[in-house]
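User: Study the shape:
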Amino acid sequence: MTEILTQDNIPLRYVIQGSGPTIVFVLGYGMTLDEWPGQMISVLASSFRVILYNHRGISGVMNPSVKFTIPQGAQDLHDLISQLADGPVHIVGYSMGGMIGLEFTIRYPELVDHLVLISTDCGGSECVPADDRVIEEMGMEPADLDAYLERAGRLLLTDSFRKQHQDPMSWFVDHGEVADPRSIMEQYDALATWKGVYSDLHVIRKPVLVITGDRDIVTPPQNATIIADAIPGAERVVVEDAAHGLIFQEPVRVGEMISRFLT
């Protein structure tokens, strides 16, 4: 297992694929680095040096005095980039990872080349939240694998996708390490307490691509418009008949979209 240590000595597992300009992928809520769609990563690793890493606590090593928060996630990302990259990098943040990407870009603009935000929001009172039932369901711990897949499919995928792919085991084909449940609860609390960055979005002067699915019930697609309108020059792409998990529904398409933007 390859790791870097944060400033408070928490190990963050990482892997590197490909060569070229560096892209750092920032995980969404409850994910591990093994869950990034392999097809999407392969598209980018053919031209880029791709770094995938785990957030603090995912592998079970936690610091009770330094909990996971969105700003702390940005600090951990800084620690990772400082040790693994030479100069500015491209950041790709999915869902919660997009929130961390925004915090990071505002705090450390000198370390960012391009920023790609997928299925995310800016937090605070300006964002459009999910329905209460969706938020409540995200905080529950499923009883078993079948229940987990059923919930994930309902929240992250469209009805049409699930009808075309009736075997739940085909929905999320890339997996490995399982996230420590305690870290997932810390992430849930981090999402609930994040104050957001809407008032600072106008200071971002980097090329930004905002991607959303038009059927996203976790992060409603209006959030992409809010972010893109607030960041000077930002581009917005709406993927039709795609939900919050559009990276799982359209991995190759999303990979190609990112590659075109970065080049």
User: Anything to note?
Assistant: The chain is about 35% helix and 15% strand. The beta strands are 3-5, 11-17, 22-26, 49-53, 89-94, 112-118, 208-213, 235-239. The CA atoms of residues 158 and 243 lie 6 Å apart.
